[in-house]
Amino acid sequence: MRLLIDVPRTIVTVLAGVTATIIAVALIAVIVLFNDSSPVIDRIIRTWSRVWLVASGTRLEVEGEDNIDPDRSYVVVANHLSALDIMACLLAVPLPIRFLAKKELFRVPVLAQGMRMVGIIEVDREARGAVHSEVNRQSKELIEKGRSLIIYAEGTRPRNGVMKPFKKGAFTMAIGSGLPILPLSIHGSYEAWPPGKPIVRGGLIRVVLDKAIETEGLGNSDTGELRDQVREIIAGRVSSLGGAVGGV
User: Fold this and answer.
1) Which terminus in the chain has less CB density within 10 A, N or C?
2) For the CA atoms of the chain, what is the radius of gyration?
3) Which domains does the chain show, CATH number per domain?
4) pTM of the entire structure?
């Protein structure tokens, strides 16, 4: 019986999402010719996100927006459960924000062009050295333009919905740039669209934004402690929302 609802919802999600992506990329392509930092770009990105969530039958509930200073940039660190996390985060954080995306997404026609135009950073998980330096360079450029950066610290989506250990990259980057870390906890997106599954189920996604953690004055030796501090905050929120958390 559930499939009678979920299959049409999935079809609508894909059709609406692909159409929104094509339109958004076309509009952004015109805008960046004149001003690649135009605030209109971020309005388009947020509208694109909203189309995906509405089409998928997903509601978004956000708590802690008052912990954001609109005049600052952040490294937003979040747990990762679903492809819908991107849309949820872009709507939950009312700032010009970009994210790191795995290289596989840059093979998708139209989407790849759009991501490059707005400054989404390509990441090759298997690469080392020079590629990591390039990620740091692009991140610095975004920050200099007054944008924030969201990083899913687990590195990939857990297939079982259980929160995984955090990697150090996000925290090294935050310390290196001197930006505060904004912990963001997500629950419900795994149920709305499980990774690796073709069916979109929709439902409620809850996002909680905790108080920012300053990194000014910290060094590389503080990376591990900072990572553990942020993970503890997010793990506590995820557990309180009803989610599952694995070991460190």
Assistant:
1) N
2) 17
3) 57-245 (3.40.1130.10)
4) 0.90
For residue 122, what are the β-bridge partners? 101
For 15-46, how does the pLDDT look when each residue is reduced to its tens digit (9 = 90+)? 999 999 999 999 999 998 899 889 999 999 99
pLDDT tens digit sequence for 181-223:
999 999 999 999 999 888 999 999 999 999 999 999 999 899 9
Which tokens go with 127? 């690469």
CA distance 155 to 50: 24
Q: Would you state the structure tokens that stand for residue 222, as one six-digit string? A: 């503080």
88-115 pLDDT tens trace: 999 999 999 988 777 777 788 888 888 8
Residue 206 near residue 187 (C-beta atoms within 8 A): yes
Q: Which of 121, 77, 115, 69 is nearest to 94 (CA)?
A: 69
**DSSP category for residue 67:** G
Who's near 42: CB < 8 A, 6+ residues apart? 96
Q: How far is CA 167 from CA 32, 42, 43, 105, 133, in A?
A: 34, 28, 31, 21, 17
- End-to-end CA distance of the chain, in Å? 39
